Amino acid sequence: MITVTGLGPGDFDRIPVWIRHVLLDPQATVVVRTIEHPAARELAQMREVVSCDDLYHVHHTFDEVYGAIADRVLEASATTPVVYAVPGSPMVGEFAVRRLLEAEVQVEVIPAESFVDSVLAEMGYDPLDRGLQLLNGHDLPDPLVLDKPTIVAQLDRPEVMADVAARIARVLPEDAVVTVLIGAGSSDAVRVEAPPHAIDSSLAGYRTSLFVDSAPGGLIGAVRTMSILRVECPWDREQTHQSLVKYLVEEAYELIDAVAKLGDLAGADEPDWVTYAEVEDELGDVLLSVLFHAAIARENGAFDIDDVAEVMRQKLVRRHPHVFGDLDVDSAADVKRNWDLIKDEERGATRESHMDGVPPGMPALQRASKVQNRAAKAGFDWARAAEVVPQVREELDELEAVLDDPTEAESELGDVLFSVVNLARHLGVDGEIALRRAIERFESRFRHMEGAGPLEGLSLDELNQRWEEAKPHT
């Protein structure tokens, strides 16, 4: 027979009388998870107890520790009734108790006051007011959503406290303040309030918790801010789906520019943090457009941002049967091919041509690549990039033959560009980004030429020499 109960959050005199009788039963062996608890230390002065603190030093992971604790309790129960006593409540954050409940033995659980009760009492907060979230500091969710009062527990080590503080600081407003509670519910309780980035990691310990009650930041904060702006800002209030389209296009291009600056990250010692900060900023601007459109749709009773996210989630699951189903794939190419097949099945009922659904308003380079991909699905495509190169040369020859005819030259030049996009597609290169980087190289080299002195008055040979001298520097 194993009885599992809690020692409450603080001193021994805080434990109810009926639980004290269980703990002081001379016929039972009492095993405490840790002696580093006020009530456990007092209990050890009243009677003999078996501590499990030594197991924390001989095992490398908490999972191993919990298993060893459960084994110790089960072994002791083979010869005598056992009371396993844990800090707080046996059903809150006590993972070894779960192991015991799964074992094929008789286990009685006696409820006790948890640290959560003490934290709520200390903060004067009723969880039925705005809800409550309880998180494990060793396993914070990703993304971390702090949209309601939150208690973070298991802050037993400085590195855990530092990691939690850093994660929280990233998703809360800059002026947010959180509360660190040490030993809540005991006579030696300590309460410290500080911004997340200023939390002293040395406050970590087995009885340390964090209480977060701030206006939400991160994605939830952005959604709520957008809702406020739609009511209180005259400009935001007047916007429509149609008026916002131009901003989405502009922000998308600015994001493309930022991504193009990242270059090839493969083999780099570390990412370009400055450029990544620019990408982060531009992604935020694109997200703003998404939130704006979702807010307007919600006001019209169509959908909200959660609906958008759920439709996307369902699409991801549906189009990844090799992850969420039983389909086997061998390569990324197989994944892409299967994605396209599923996408075609989803839209096939309304598509009369392979060219249907390609937006006419797309930038020309992207639209060219898109229609080429559609044609390729029907089998109308070159097999390899090497086969496209002669096609590019052929189009250049045709252009050269009509240079004196502006109308024909325009047509043939379009064919040249179209064939170059086709080559880029076969090479796996994004034509838009490749061209942008080429433009940036040209600009950089030209600026270098200008830096060597005025260009006006130089001959073409002298300009070409400046150009060649600029190449190694860009």
- The CATH homologous superfamily name of the largest domain equals Tetrapyrrole methylase, N-terminal domain
- Which structural category fits the helices and strands? alpha/beta
Mean pLDDT: 92
**Amino-to-carboxy terminus distance:** 77 Å
Tell me the radius of gyration. Answer: 33 Å
CATH structural architecture of the largest domain:
3-Layer(aba) Sandwich
Total beta-strand segments: 10
Strand order of the largest sheet: 3-2-4-1-5
Q: Assign the CATH class of the largest domain.
A: Alpha Beta
Shape: elongated
The major sheet is characterized as: 5 strands, parallel
Number of helices: 20
Proportion of helical residues: 40-55%
Low-confidence stretches: none
SSE succession: EHEHEHHEHEHHEEHEEEHHHHHHHHHHHH
Give me the secondary-structure topology.
Elements: E1 2-6, H1 17-23, E2 29-32, H2 38-46, E3 50-51, H3 55-58, H4 62-77, E4 82-86, H5 95-102, E5 107-110, H6 115-123, H7 127-130, E6 133-136, E7 150-153, H8 158-171, E8 178-182, E9 190-194, E10 208-212, H9 218-232, H10 234-238, H11 241-262, H12 273-299, H13 305-318, H14 321-324, H15 332-347, H16 364-377, H17 385-400, H18 406-427, H19 431-451, H20 460-470
Parallel strand pairs: 1-4, 1-5, 2-3, 2-4, 6-7
Antiparallel strand pairs: 7-10, 8-9, 8-10
Annotation keywords:
474 residues; Methyltransferase, Cobalt-precorrin-4 Transmethylase, Domain 2; 5 domains; Cobalt-precorrin-4 Transmethylase, domain 1; 54% helix; alpha/beta; Helix Hairpins
Descriptive overview:
Helices cover 54% and strands 9% of the residues. It has 474 residues and is of the alpha/beta class. The protein folds into five domains: 2-113, Tetrapyrrole methylase, N-terminal domain (Cobalt-precorrin-4 Transmethylase, domain 1), CATH 3.40.1010.10; 117-216, Methyltransferase, Cobalt-precorrin-4 Transmethylase, Domain 2; 219-318, Helix Hairpins; 351-429, Helix Hairpins (Orthogonal Bundle), CATH 1.10.287.1080; 437-473. Strands 3-2-4-1-5 form a five-stranded parallel beta sheet, with helices on both faces. A five-stranded mixed beta sheet has the order 6-7-10-8-9, with helices on one face. A hairpin with a 7-residue loop joins strand 8 (178-182) and strand 9. Helix 19 crosses helix 20 (460-470). The radius of gyration is 33 Å and the shape is elongated.
